[in-house]
Amino acid sequence: MSFFNMLEQISSGMLHTILIFFFTLVFSLPLGWIVAFGRMSKNKIISGITAFFISILRGTPLMLQLMVVFYGPYFLFQLPIGNWRFPAIIVGFSINYAAYFAEIYRSGISAIPVGQYEAAHILGYTKVQTFFKIILPQVIRIILPAVTNEVITLVKDTSLAFSISYIEMFSITKQIASTQTTLMPFAIAAAFYYIFNLLVSFVMRRLEKRLNYY
Predict the structure, then answer these.
(1) Which residues span the domain enclosing 158?
(2) Which segments of the chain does DSSP mark as H helices, in order?
């Protein structure tokens, strides 16, 4: 198989990799806020349950979580899983990354001085107005480097979808490498991941510069 044939086949799996990346961010970023607020809740039960949820997801491998999400409906309820593969990947990735994003959000909120809340209260701001107009813009600026690191990690973690036999870029790479007995497919895949991460880093740096006024 020629280099260009390998390149064409591997690039065909890139779309699936991008879809995993995109939908994971769409669901995990807002879900992370919900988890973060639960973790910071004054209700000890809610806070404790959320902390346990985070510890489980951060303390076990993502590959294992994908397998549990994918095979769980069958083993627990005997439900068919034929069309569940891609949704299971998105669910597994989203809840895993939501746990990491939640801790990042929580650290950013905790970094805001208490005096800003008090000043906003004196000026007549409600709690909702205080959060969205004063606190949130600063929190985003603080957490952006950490979020960027997680997003870059997500690009590489998309390769774990192969663990439940989903055909994405890394799965195709492994198939070609095993049938052609060559390392060239891995070099091509590495270049794809590297370029993808360069684009992510560029976008996040631009966003960080736009928020520098905070």
Answers:
(1) 16-165
(2) 3-12, 14-39, 44-59, 62-77, 85-110, 114-122, 127-129, 136-157, 169-180, 184-210
- 4 φψ region: left (φ > 0), alpha (ψ -120 to 50), beta (else): alpha
Q: Is 112 exposed, middle or buried (0-12, 13-18, 19+ CB in 10 A)?
A: middle
Q: Among the residues of 158-211, which ranges form H helices? A: 169-180, 184-210
Q: Is residue 48 part of a domain?
A: yes
- pLDDT (0 to 100) of residue 213: 58
Which sign does the torsion angle of CA 4, 21, 66, 190 carry? positive
Residue 72's CB is within 10 A of a number of other CB atoms, namely 14
Which pTM value belongs to this model?
A: 0.88
- The tally of domains found in the chain comes to 1
117-136 tens-digit pLDDT: 788 888 888 888 888 888 88
24-67 pLDDT, tens digit each: 999 999 999 999 999 999 899 999 999 999 999 999 999 999 99
- Whole-angstrom Cα distance, residue 98 to residue 144? 15
130/20 Cα distance (integer angstroms): 35
**Single-letter residue type at 9:** Q
**Across all residues in the chain, what is the average pLDDT?**
88
